[in-house]
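Form 12-C: Joint structure prediction
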Amino acid sequence: MTATLPNYETNPQPSLPPNMKLSPIAWARKNLFNNWYNSLVTIIVVVVGAILVFYSGRYIFVTGQWEAVRKNLTLLMVGIFPRNEQWRLVVQMYLMASALGLAWGTATARSQDRAAETGIAAHRPTPLDLMRRYWTILLLLVVILALTQTIWPTLFTLSTLAVGLGVRSAAMRLPLSARQPCWYASAFMAILSFQVVSGTDGNAWWWTSALVSLAAFHLAGTKDFTKYLDSEIIRPFSRHKRLATAKDLIRFKQLTQIVSVIAAVIVVRIAYWLIGETSQVSWDNWSGLYLTLVASIAAITLSFPLALLLAVGRRSSLPVVRWLCVSYIELFRGVPFIALLFVAKIFIDFFLDVETPLSLMTRTIIAFTIFSSAYVAEVVRGGLQAVPKGQIEAGQALGLQPPGIMRLIVLPQALSAVIPAMVGQFISLFKDSSLFAIISVVEFYRARELIHSQQEFTTTAISETLVFVAFAYWALSYTMSKESQRLERHLGVGER
Amino acid sequence: MHKSSGRLLALLGLVLTFSLIAVACGNDDDNDATPTTDLVQNEGTLQAVKDRGHVLCGSRDDVPGFALLNENGQYEGFDIDMCRAVAAAVFGDADAVEIVPVTSAERFTALASGQFEVMNRNTTWTATRDGTEGANFLFTTYYDGQGLMVPASTGFTTLNDLADANICVSTGTTTELNLTAVFAARGIPFNPVTFEGFDTLVPAYEEGQCEAMTADSSVLGVFKYEIEQDGGPDQHIMAELISKEPLGTVVRDGDTEWAQVVNWATMATVQAWEFGLDSSNIASYNGSDPNILNFLGRDGFDPGLGLPSDFAIHVVQQVGNYEEIFNRYPQLGVLEGSVNDLWSNGGLMYVPPYR
Amino acid sequence: MTDTTTINPSLANVNRDATEIGGREIMVEMVGVNKFFGTFHALNSIDMKVGSGEVVVVIGPSGSGKSTLIRCINRLEHHDRGRIVVDGIELTEDVRNIALIRRETGMVFQQFNLFPHLTVIDNITLGPRQVLKMPKKQAEDRAMELLERVKIPEQARKFPGQLSGGQQQRVAIARSLAMQPKIMLFDEPTSALDPEMISEVLNVILELAKTGITLIVVTHEMGFAREAADRVIFMADGEIVEVGEPEHFFTNPQEERTQLFLSQIL
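Section 2 - Result
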């Protein structure tokens, strides 16, 4: 004790623990070769590692028959999607890149504003940080592009990235009043991109116009917009100098909302009329890795809010709500996913005698969502239970109503507590999508199996396709898990 | 508190179950269907298909030669072409068909529930399936049967040549049972070498662990093709079959109009072959055979099948006659002289006259 | 301090129509309040009046029902029998009444119960913005004023987990005050604190006492009771045993149980 004390006094950086500034050699000596058995373990591990690296390197670059993957790359990526309609996927990627860029830029701008306001600098990730964060996905992209046979996919990928980043930096420069419209625009572009891919046949236009008119209704109701209309349009053209009373303003606001909703519906209708309503593709054409990703993302985003409702409902003081939630959760947790898929594909038709049944893909995604929401609901419930009763009491003492307490106090804490478990659930969900093969949906893994139905590859290149598919699953799951850790750190600031 | 809510849950579950059963029964009564859970409307399939604008055809995606999803994301194969023939007959467009892949376990349920209205999914016609699965087996498009394959160099041609031979066979299948039964009946001794599946069986056969391998002859055709393509020794599939596996087109029980449509659309491929018509010459036929003229719908001949009078032209022009279809897929083996040859050539392909 | 009653209120003839006590308006009135936890009789026929601006300290051995008493005032606990009136509003099953009463009362907890996912300033502005619908700017200005008052304005952007116990409790006080309550309820505010932090919190409460807000404080700090209280209520076994001015109470307790308790802790 007393012996170490002078060391600290002479240490130029007393706040750092001593081993943090060790040189690599000193570090190795201290941690890897500090005694004979540790040295032995180190040497064995290094030798075995080198052998593994050598063989896997030789496999990847020399002996591997990647022709099977190369020839069937499109099959793996988009499966049965009609090849002459692939421009739809390209358009979607550009739209998606713009939507994500817009959302990202708006979010960044907002966090910058918030940082400026509070005086606490937000951490800005550098390109290197982003590379490090998403290296597995980048590696997957590089591998896929390396397996393509023309230059076009590479150019296309690069230009997609460029579009996304360009839109992002543009969005960051937009004024504050553009924030809300930007969120809506981003969401709309994402929805539109899926309609491009799925074709606009059927009833797509009405639910799109429903979403757009909701957004229009909200935007037209914002104070900024009413003020803007009042000062820029009404006043110059009106006999009255300005809207006289608050009552007028409210009436005016309601009028604008109605007009915007009608306008939105008309605009969407015309847009669909212009695009044309029939096309050769439908949701059922989605397959391959594309389907795996879309179905997983859809199920994750849809099951999350559903799970919140279920978890909260399970703790409701209304018995009927509670029983309903409990039955839902216990029923769907107790049923194997495969059974649920069969129900979605076949048995639904026995019970529902409908004229135009939902497409298989819709049903599959619904089954996927139902299944996952039951599990996620239980995870969330665990989080809700972990929030101390005192937190609720503090909220009550402030005069908050139960919904406010749930939304502002309990849920934020509950969710940040269960992020790891929830993301674990999502990762397993992502991999469960391979069970779609059971109902003959050609998802990513099934596409790989189909390669080996081809005459040429019946007994060859089995390991290569397996390695490729496994790597893709791993790269995506790993990123999910990394992102969850980051989010956890980010949200865990308060608990530090 | 805890106990009572548990009891309530159980009650709720019971109520749910009963309401589901009630719904099912209610539907049963409405449609007056067979007890084989066929709740889908059984009549008017043709009109429903026409309203929809395309045919839904149950098939598979993983058997080269019969039905395969190829690297371009398109279905191809003998069974797929039979699906396309129906679309060509109904709509005059062979592309107006959507292939619905199904697993063998779910195929009859899927057919009964209305996932598709035609099924070409190498399904053997058996009495039990015809009787209890709510399925109606139509024209047999491919007479399959369990066969034996030997390297051509052995010179074996009959089962008797295989006395005391090692025969590779998949374990636990009807194939194994058939093999044992037939060889025992004929008093030919042999040694079965069993494998879990073809991925281990075929390499073993190629290595020479057995003198012969047995499987359905359609499957043997695939492996024959594959072994020879890989530069292996020539293979010989014995003509003699040791089981009957008629593979054909299946529709739902209960709609004779639709069954007729599908049946005649399929048989048109064989009829054209018999008439010597193929995709290149059918439209330009200028002979005077009255049967052929009827077949082509000249002079407005309409047998009242519910199909356009010129449906056969569309079928053969867009899909081909039976011989063309068969020979498009080398995995199916040699047509000439096989059981699938025309009746006039000693095969089993025989269709009712078109008049 | 004043001529407030020194009679045990449970024995007193309660005048239900009285609107004043000792020259003050009545802020909190409890009549015949009973509370059970299962078969445990937590509050036994409590009668109590607290006047506007009065500082009442509740003491007593643990398990005597002190906390339950003040938690009944803002309906964190449901009382089984009796009547509670806060600033003229009767506490009934009607959620609107409950909401009104909670708006009039602030509460500080033994375990602080700050919201760990919000910064200090967000903790304080949450109530005003969500319940009083106060604009953000105004709410934050008020929050900063209150943080000045509890002497930790520099901690505004930190998270509760980054503060010491004493600082956290002062934030909790600021959070309650932000709702501009007429009554502040303190539920053992210093019991979870390290000894060196107790005084900083008590000082804040003492200053609060001078502002004329009504305070009901459950505590074990006898020094504080002696210095700040207008009245001291001694509870045992769910009953109010004795009520008195602090001087009188500490020097000359009437009841045997009070004498025993004081002899044990002083």
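Section 3 - Comments
Residues 1-8, 18-39 of chain B have pLDDT under 50 and may be disordered. The first helix of chain B runs from residue 2 to 31.
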